[in-house]
Amino acid sequence: MPLNILFAASEDRWQAYEAPLREALSDIGQGDANLALDIPAAEVDYIVYAPSSEVQDFMPYTRTKAVLNLWAGVEGVVGNDTLTQPLARMVDDGLTQGMVDWVVGHTMRHHLNTDLHVMNQDGKWRRYVPPLAPDRPVTILGLGALGRACGEALAGLGFPVTGWSRSQKDVEGLRCLSGDEGLVQALSDAQIVILLLPQTPDTENLLNAARLDLLPEGAVIINPGRGPLIDDDALLSALDSGHIGHATLDVFREEPLPAEHPYWAHPKVTVTPHIASETRPKSASRVIAENIRRGEAGEPFVHLVDRSLGY
Ligand code: NDP
């Protein structure tokens, strides 16, 4: 019998994903699958899912073998008590490359102080020679699919990169730290800090006043992870005091960031509208199809979320 695959995401996403998903399903021998925006719950075999979808009660999906999240972040679904089916998050080459591009770009902006020339073309001959990359320590909080790729890319450019994660890692070319003591070390010499942690109860307000204080004077924060990782009031006061030199923020507690939020007008804050990286339909469709292939072959799913950890 053909598989029933529910696409539980917006019409816009359907336009972008329908063709690549059909192609990827065909490549795994499921070309006759019924892929649709609406299928009776009790008949659904797999759900391709965006947490903003109308599907919030998973109880009626009695034969569903897995919920396949379209995004890397799962904070919008992981706490859903009705979800008893396996939940996989998105790990996609296209998403990873996009994040590497964004992180490297924003790191280089601050490293080279590009703004000095871009924003000040006023007839003054401002000579500024930045330090070389090996003299600019960078710390990445989170060494998962995205943090590790960004860390490796920056290390490849010559930056001394420290990565911090929950479990101890061993990544060639990176100083890897973990635990509370590791976090203190990771922050104490970081001139640029990049947050690529998931949003969980353990990571909320991780960058608080005390931890911002650990950073050297003038350090730069780059947050493409999630807004709640940072204590906003603490960051604003560290920016105002001059302790933190700049913050480039892509993600916020409330999105879109309200027009009256102090971040918008702050001279030391750059706001980007949650565009650091997007799941790419073509490569992401292959990841979804691979998990469906695994489910049908009785093989373990990849990129499963650990509900107890929340990511
Ligand atoms: P992963 O799950 O692969 O990696 C998460 C990393 O964070 C792991 O290294 C993990 O440690 C670490 N971590 C989690 N909890 C803690 C903790 N309490 N203390 C220390 N380390 C912790 O996620 P991805 O790399 O794929 O994505 C990271 C985040 O990036 C996503 O959750 C999402 O919020 C964000 N994102 C933002 C996008 C944007 O456009 N702005 C786009 C895509 C993702 P360990 O390795 O030990 O498990």
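^ NDP complex. Residues 72-73, 91, 95, 142-147, 165-167, 196-200, 202-203, 224-226, 250-251, 274, 276-277, 311 surround NDP (CB under 6 Å). The chain is about 30% helix and 15% strand.
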